[in-house]
Amino acid sequence: MKRVTGIGGIFFKSRDPKALAEWYRQHLGLDVNDWGGAAFRWADDSASGMTLWTPFKEDTGYFAPSDAPFMVNFRVADLHGLLAALRAEGCDVQDKVDESEYGKFGWVIDPEGRKVELWEPPAGS
Under CATH, to which class is 4-120 assigned? Predict the structure, then answer.
């Protein structure tokens, strides 16, 4: 089974996400969107997609149960299949799975306690 197919996003905590995003826009040229992050679009011979860069508020609970100040989002081909395989391998897989127009999201905790987000994009993206 194909597992990770790319990096879907880099998410990190910030004392002031809006000011930090503005600094990255002004000094590094990131095209920061209204939702607070930037999308880097890419394409190769077999697929196209994007990688997100997003600062979150310092007190966000989105990374819980991890206390790490960042979270990596990996693109995957088959979220439910991968989560089942990870459970069978004894990994700490979170019970919650979110499915929406943005795709399917699941989470696993790495051996050092960091939350890792797994994302299966919607069909056709």
Answer: alpha beta
